[in-house]
Amino acid sequence: MSQTTKYKRILLKLSGEALMGDDSYGINRATIDRIVHEVKEVVDLGVQVAVVIGGGNIFRGVAPAASGMDRATADYMGMLATVMNALALQDAMKRAGIVSRVQSALTIAQVAEPYVRGKAIQYLEENKVVIFGAGTGNPFFTTDTAAALRGMEMGADIVIKATKVDGVYTDDPKKNPDAVRYQTVTFDEVIGRNLKVMDATAFALCRDQKMNICVLSIFKAGALKRMVLGEDEGTLVHC
Ligand SMILES: Nc1ncnc2c1ncn2[C@@H]1O[C@H](COP(=O)(O)OP(=O)(O)OP(=O)(O)O)[C@@H](O)[C@H]1O
Ligand SMILES: O=c1ccn([C@@H]2O[C@H](COP(=O)(O)O)[C@@H](O)[C@H]2O)c(=O)[nH]1
């Protein structure tokens, strides 16, 4: 029996750091397969999925080499790290039977298609997963902001930040065990309280364009699926 989803098209921001699993950097094979399984559950529901992938798992590994570097140069390295993750994700998706396309915001013609909005929308309409690499293509930004931007460009119904924590807390739950999770929270509150789960530029962009964000854990089995089915998962950030 087919299930009715709350969202038809989603922009999924996948944490780069989540791909490390318990390793200190890089991509853990079992972990990426587990994440792809979560994504497949929503693809199989007929939801159109666009993905922005982060780069923390690789960029953290090269950070010592990048320290003291020109900021823009280091940022380009960070964006290239996200392209590597995009290729790894596509490969893992292929093994899982998901058809996907990688588009890069930086031109690397031999490696990935360039970002072309119309083409990306066409792929989504064909039920192919589109993986956006290289963030926004601009230094001084993050992949959170790329997720907000591409979410709007794709006409997504919602931006979902799938990360290592299961929502937005009153403080960083990894540092403060007394932090309490919000079920819902407004953009004004997350920005006003400077909550760091997502960068302020991304929050501000989504607030201005009235694009809701859901923050959930990609490690909680079935959470992504339950969320697209309209069940209460993670934290909804809204206007
Ligand atoms: N108020 C908060 N609520 C929830 N998480 C928070 C909060 N403040 C800080 N965090 C931290 O934010 C992290 C998620 O954001 P972060 O940007 O580090 O990761 P990411 O975007 O998932 O990774 P990447 O940059 O590799 O893509 C969580 O792991 C959590 O420790
Ligand atoms: O639009 C963008 C996106 C990313 N960067 C750089 O890449 C790294 C990794 O991205 P995360 O969002 O931290 O996963 C980021 O730290 C930036 O250095 C960028 O410059 N522009």
From TrEMBL:
Gene that specifies this protein: pyrH
InterPro entries: AceGlu_kinase-like_sf, Asp/Glu/Uridylate_kinase, Uridylate_kinase, Uridylate_kinase_bac
Similarity comment: Belongs to the UMP kinase family.
A Pfam match: AA_kinase
Bilayer-crossing regions: none
Catalytic activity: UMP + ATP = UDP + ADP
Cell location: Cytoplasm
Function recorded in the entry: Catalyzes the reversible phosphorylation of UMP to UDP.
Domain Aspartate/glutamate/uridylate kinase: from-to ranges: 8-216
The name this protein goes by in its record: Uridylate kinase
Subunit and partners: Homohexamer.
Residues that, per the record, bind ATP: K13, L14, S15, G16, G56, R60, T163, Y169, D172
UniProt-listed Enzyme Commission number(s): 2.7.4.22
UniProt entry keywords in alphabetical sequence: ATP-binding, Cytoplasm, Kinase, Nucleotide-binding, Pyrimidine biosynthesis, Transferase
Modulation of this protein's activity: Inhibited by UTP.
One Gene Ontology term of the molecular function aspect: UMP kinase activity
Source taxonomy: Bacteria, Pseudomonadati, Pseudomonadota, Betaproteobacteria, Neisseriales
Residues the entry annotates as binding UMP: G55, D75, T136, G137, N138, P139, F140, F141, T142, T143
Biological or metabolic pathway of the protein: Pyrimidine metabolism; CTP biosynthesis via de novo pathway; UDP from UMP (UMPK route): step 1/1
